Amino acid sequence: MKLFIALAAILATAVAAPMEGRITHGEKAHEGQFPYQVGLSLAIGSSGAWCGGTLISDRWVLTAAHCTDGADSATVYVGAINIKEEEHGQKRIKVDKADIKVHEDWDASRVVNDISLIKLPEAIEFNDRVRAATLPKKDGRYSTYAGEQAFASGWGRDSDDATAVSSVLRYVEMPIMKSSTCNIYWAGMITDKVICMSTKDGKSTCNGDSGGPLVHKQGDINYLIGATSFGLALGCEKGYPAVFTRVTAYLDWIEENSGVVNK
Fold this sequence. Notes:
Elements lengths: L2 E3 L21 E2 L8 E8 L2 E9 L4 E4 L1 H4 L4 E6 L12 E6 L3 E3 L13 E4 L29 E6 L15 E6 L3 H7 L8 E4 L15 E6 L2 E12 L9 E5 L4 H8 L5
Antiparallel strand pairs: 1-14, 2-11, 3-4, 3-6, 4-5, 5-9, 6-7, 8-9, 10-11, 10-13, 12-15, 13-14, 14-15
């Protein structure tokens, strides 16, 4: 079994690499539908990578460690739908390496603690296109979310045949799986620090979606419950559950490193 870590559109065949690409069999997002979604163009040595991320405040972005580990800088796309165009309301913000915080216990070989934070150089102004997602409340009573519907979004590949990330933001709405069921596919890799999404009918995150949001909506509130971590390198449409870093497992770490908390 080969993993792909949802990194950028260049690493999908790695034995233990995160996701790249676009949402497979997803719907096109419309302006303001996912105001918390950001895109990340990462400079890593002489190469580059593309990932997703989530605004959790007007200064902080949450993403995956496999995206930012080794990055020299990041350009954060805020308020974007089409990343190939300079749309009205879209901003691109350069962030230096010093403002990228990778989890100190990130282990690429086991794909554990796959989480990182990016600090923006200044506070951004919220509007209809740009708004932070809400962290789960830090009250110790966390739902497993099993059986609940959730939204995953990003610019990842939209099919296994695609060779590049999507220019347009896409999304899927799918149910969260029980960890015990997910572990049938990912034997020994499913802990209480990750969360799984069904990919029935080929609807899945894919290469290029790495680090992007998994959100559970309650009324008008977008609760960030996951960050895209890994999937099956043999194909995003094969039916293997997509795996995300479980945000509730890292609320203390997020607060300690960014000050962002929902009490």
